[in-house]
Structures are given as structure tokens and as C-alpha cells.
Write a structure and sequence with these properties.
Layout (H helix, E strand, L loop, with lengths): L12 H21 L14 E4 L2 E4 L11 H4 L8 H6 L4 H7 L25 H4 L6 H5 L13 H7 L5 H25 L5 H27 L8 H16 L11 H15 L8 H21 L8
Antiparallel strand pairs: 1-2
Bound molecules: protoporphyrin IX containing FE.
Keywords: Endoplasmic reticulum, Heme, Iron, Lipid metabolism, Membrane, Metal-binding, Oxidoreductase, Transmembrane, Transmembrane helix
GO molecular function, one term: heme binding
Protein name: Cytochrome b5 heme-binding domain-containing protein
Length: about 300
């Protein structure tokens, strides 16, 4: 049988988790690799495709397509069942497709969105998903997410990426200056340039390891569904990125919880680093974190929204 005629491959649940994890990375990678000619610039706000005798308007998704807009462009007004199968799209991709169904998403039995009310704040609802949470959270939708009922709390969780350098760069400079003075004061070193640079680099390496560990063991854990607090925690710190990957207001960690994490790391690392270099290591860690966020966002191309 021709590969293109074969039914969608059934991935194991582990496959789906791994693919969902790669999803955000693919979206970023695709945006970074696109050049101007790749951007969908159709004047119409419709880009219709067919899939299994239903019609979908995927206009608002085109420039977010993790494979790049050029793969999808030739299929305007055509059936995409075969090309989607050919590229072995995940369960998440087919789930996302439902978002764009003409006449609105079908609330059938398989639709996990019927378990929550998108007109209400989401954080208070995720706990009740129980064992369904893990599947729901890696099934993406193309919507804006409201977390809290309170406008103030909601406002505090919305973070455009440029807030990160605005807040953290002055703090990094302050820590680097104070840290250098402290280093000179303690060591009486008259030429501190190399030790200062090495300590800041140490901080960058340390942050890379912490970030990897957080993603590997905390952000991508699978809550069993038995503990509501674990579900709330997972959704608030990372799950929401998988649920609403295109909500650009929620791609970076808000400064307030980031400050709490930074303070905890500061206290913990004070046990391992000597007094003379500790502040410089922290400055390096914050530099690593802030620059990775800025590089990620500055290298994105504009996204067309309807
Ligand atoms: C119309 C024909 C399409 C073609 C030829 C196509 C092609 C591709 C390719 C080549 C990739 C892999 C990107 C990589 O590994 O870097 C990809 C990924 C992806 N595509 Fe498509 N695509 C099509 C339509 C769609 C549609 C309609 C949707 C959903 C609305 C979709 C959602 C995704 C998603 C979510 C991924 C990430 C990987 C995954 O979860 O499967 N694609 N696509």
C-alpha cells in the first residue's frame, strides 16, 4: 500500500508526550528559519482546506505551522488528508485542526474541550480534569487563555517577552558591579577581569543545567491526576504553553514567580559558591536566562493574525 494511503499512524502515548514537548520547539524553529517569501501574505482572511469531508479555515494558523507555511500553501481548497498522513502528523496536530472547522469545533465525544468551559478562567477548572488532565494539556488549541478571574492576578501573569530584559538587565548590571567590588574587596586581586568573566560564565553554565533539569523533571512530568494541587502547579508553571502554544502573551515566565525562583536559587547556591564569586555567578545565570529569551523572540518573524 502506498504510504500516502495508509491510515494515520497510531503513536503510543509516550510518543505523543514527546511530540507535544517538541511542538513548541518546532514552532520556534520554523519561525526562525522562515524568510520573508515564506510568510503567507494572502489578502483574504480565509485559507480553506478539506479533511475527511469537512472544511477548515486555517488562515490564522498558517504562519504558526511547525513545518513552515510553504508546506501548506499548495493545498488551498484541497484535501489535506494524504499530505498530513505522509508527514506522519501527531494526534496533537489532528486535534488542533478541529479548532479551525468551518461552523465551529464539533463537540463530539472525543473532544476534550467539552470537559472545560473556555468562557471561564481556566486555572480553577483544570483540577477537576483528574486523570484526563495529562491528555487534555498536550492537546493544543489556538485560543487566548484566561487563567484567573481577578483582573489583577490575570494582569500579573501576562508577560510580553520584552519585559524580561527591561526588568532583568538592570539587575544583572547591578549584581555584576557589586559582585566585582566584593570580589576585589575579599581577594585584593588587582586584575579581576579573568576571574569575573569566568564566574559569570560559570553562572551561564549553571543556569543551562538548571533549565534543562526543570524541563526534564518538573515541567514535563505527567501528573497522575490524583492530586489536584499537582495539576494546578503543572498547568500554571508549564502546561499552559502546551495547551495554548500560540498565545504569545504567555510564552515567558512572569517576573514575580521568576523572582521567587531566583531568590531560592540564590539562597541554595550560597551553600556551594564562595562569597567572593557568588553574586557574579548569579549575574551570569540571569544573563543566560534573559539572553536566551531575547534571542528566541528577536529571531521570530512577524505572524499574521486575523
Ligand atoms: C496541508 C498539508 C501539510 C503538510 C504538507 C504538512 C507538513 C508538515 C511537516 C513537513 C511537518 C514537520 C516539521 C518538522 O519536523 O520540522 C509538519 C509538522 C506539523 N504540522 Fe503539518 N503539514 C500540513 C498540514 C497541517 C495541518 C492542516 C495542521 C493542523 C492544523 C498541521 C499541524 C502540524 C503540527 C502540529 C506539526 C508538528 C508535528 C506534529 O505534531 O505532528 N499540519 N507538518
Amino acid at each position: 500500500m502506498d504510504q500516502s494511503d495508509s491510515p494515520p499512524l497510531k503513536a503510543s502515548s509516550m510518543d505523543n508526550v514527546v511530540r507535544a514537548m517538541c511542538y513548541l520547539v518546532l514552532v520556534q524553529k520554523n519561525r526562525m528559519s522562515q524568510n520573508d517569501t515564506c510568510i503567507y501574505d494572502g489578502e483574504d482572511t480565509k485559507f480553506k482546506i478539506d479533511y475527511e469531508s469537512n472544511t477548515y479555515n486555517i488562515y490564522q494558523f498558517l504562519n504558526n505551522h511547525p513545518g513552515g507555511v510553504n508546506y501548506v500553501k499548495p493545498y488551498e481548497s484541497k484535501d489535506v488528508a494524504q499530505p498530513m498522513r505522509r508527514y506522519d502528523h501527531s494526534k496533537a496536530a489532528y486535534y488542533l485542526l478541529k479548532e479551525y472547522q468551518q461552523g465551529g469545533r464539533k463537540k463530539d465525544e472525543d473532544d476534550l474541550e467539552r470537559l472545560v468551559d473556555w468562557n471561564k478562567p481556566m486555572l480553577s477548572q483544570v483540577g477537576k480534569l483528574g486523570t484526563k488532565y495529562s491528555e487534555w494539556v498536550i492537546s493544543p488549541v489556538d485560543r487566548r487563555l484566561r487563567l484567573f478571574d481577578s483582573d489583577l492576578l490575570e494582569y500579573l501573569t501576562i508577560t510580553p517577552w520584552y519585559v524580561v530584559p527591561m526588568i532583568w538587565i538592570p539587575i544583572i548590571i547591578y549584581l555584576a558591579v557589586i559582585g566585582t567590588k566584593k570580589y576585589i574587596h575579599i581577594t585584593k586581586d588587582a586584575s579581576p577581569f579573568i576571574p569575573v568573566v569566568l564566574s559569570i560564565s560559570e553562572g551561564i553554565v549553571l543556569w543551562t543545567l538548571i533549565e534543562y533539569s526543570l524541563h526534564r523533571w518538573v515541567f514535563h512530568m505527567e501528573p497522575s491526576g490524583k492530586s489536584k494541587s499537582m495539576i494546578y502547579f503543572h498547568f500554571a508553571i508549564h502546561g499552559l504553553h502546551h495547551k495554548v502554544p500560540f498565545d504569545s502573551r504567555r510564552l515567558v515566565f512572569p517576573p514575580f514567580p521568576a523572582a521567587i525562583i531566583t531568590f531560592t536559587i540564590y539562597k541554595l547556591t550560597s551553600l556551594f559558591f564562595c562569597d567572593s564569586t557568588h553574586l557574579l555567578v548569579i549575574a551570569g545565570g540571569l544573563l543566560g536566562k534573559s539572553s536566551s529569551i531575547c534571542i528566541d523572540n528577536l529571531s521570530q518573524v512577524p505572524i499574521i493574525h486575523t
